[in-house]
Specification:
42% of the residues lie in helices and 14% in strands. By secondary structure, it is α/β, with parallel strands linked by helices. Strand 1, helix 5 and strand 2 form a beta-alpha-beta unit.
């Protein structure tokens, strides 16, 4: 098979020594074809990299003018802003979007990747689920020369183009700010350290403590998901600590808001008793009292940059393979939740 050549049902039929009609019916899961034969057909289709023909007319030109987007969730202000940035660029370039989400499941992520591959998207923009440990489900795209851009949650060690912020630097800045406000025992509330974003923010947190001569204990790290329940549990856990922490760096604004509410319901003052810094600069940060100090994570910029690099590659303007890592600017936004000293 020549590199880049689209595999057809005739190629599969030839390999299996059966008729193209049998292959066609097997790929449609037609019960007239035995389960054993259908399995042979699907296995050979996977081996050869066959993609179901959903857009035959466009494929005469070897493109569908469609970009796939695979995200880990949709119920997120950050992801919504990223999608807005992607949509702005792709619409201007005349591309449609196919959006799928993994619901933080590596299994669903792999299934969605396969589906987008079979939909013959011209390129894919993706952010990984909590528990994704292998990128094997993206190999068919690479083998077919379909460009990939990963954003936010990525694998930086792999040979991929990624769009990220400097998470370690952001973690350091957030923690340093709390230290400058007089905090001595700072708790870090985060999610799975298997993901680059949380591992790097944790690294920044630890580095800032070390550089300022503050001791770290395991109790100062709380790892959970990013749910409302996690915010409540983190607050209740801190209320039992002796001595109580005087600062919290939380890796998500929604969890920060829930945590602050729970602490206040238990009689604590923010920031006088506990100073709080969040992450993402979601709208909720300005709606809670006191307003939340946070790291601005420019989702729209990230989406635009990821989409622009992908589109420029498809149009032959640039080659994304020549740039492995693109860093998007981010900054600390200081509000009342962390201010224990006069500005």
């Amino acid at each position: 098979m020549k590199p880049g050549k689209e595999v057809t049902i005739y190629d599969i039929a030839k390999k299996l020594n059966i008729s193209p009609a049998t292959v066609s019916r097997g790929l449609q899961d037609n019960p007239a074809i035995s389960k054993k034969t259908r399995k042979r057909i699907f296995d050979m289709a996977d081996e050869l990299g066959y993609r179901t023909n959903h857009y035959a007319r466009n494929l005469r030109q070897s493109q569908t003018n469609t970009i796939g987007v695979l995200v880990h969730e949709l119920n997120s202000n950050f992801i919504t802003s990223v999608l807005a940035g992607i949509e702005k660029i792709t619409t201007e370039a005349g591309y449609d979007l196919l959006i799928a989400h993994s619901s933080e499941s590596a299994v669903k992520e792999a299934a969605n990747a396969r589906n987008l591959f079979h939909k013959r998207v011209d390129g894919l923009i993706a952010s990984l689920a909590f528990d994704t440990t292998s990128l094997d489900h993206f190999k068919p795209f690479k083998e077919k020369g379909v460009p990939l851009v990963f954003f936010d949650r990525v694998e930086q060690d792999a040979d991929n183009t990624v769009v990220i912020i400097d998470n370690a630097k952001c973690g350091y800045i957030a923690t340093q700010h709390l230290i400058e406000q007089g905090c001595k025992k700072i708790v870090h509330v985060t999610a799975s350290l298997k993901r680059n974003v949380y591992a790097q923010r944790y690294k920044g947190f630890r580095d800032a403590l070390h550089d300022h001569g503050l001791k770290f204990e395991e109790s100062q790290l709380i790892v959970n998901d990013l749910s409302e329940k996690a915010g409540v549990e983190a607050a209740l856990r801190m209320l039992k600590m002796k001595p109580m922490p005087d600062g919290i760096f939380i890796t998500n604004d929604f969890v920060s808001a829930v945590c602050m509410r729970t602490l206040k319901e238990n009689g604590l003052r923010i920031p006088q008793d506990i100073a709080v810094v969040g992450f993402n600069n979601d709208a909720i940060g300005n709606l809670i009292e006191p307003a939340l100090t946070t790291i601005n994570y420019p989702g729209i910029d990230m989406g635009e940059i990821a989409a622009r690099n992908l589109i420029n590659h498809l149009k032959g303007i640039s080659d994304i393979h020549q740039t492995n890592t693109i860093i998007v600017r981010s900054e600390l936004i200081i509000r009342k939740s962390s201010l224990r000293k006069p500005v």
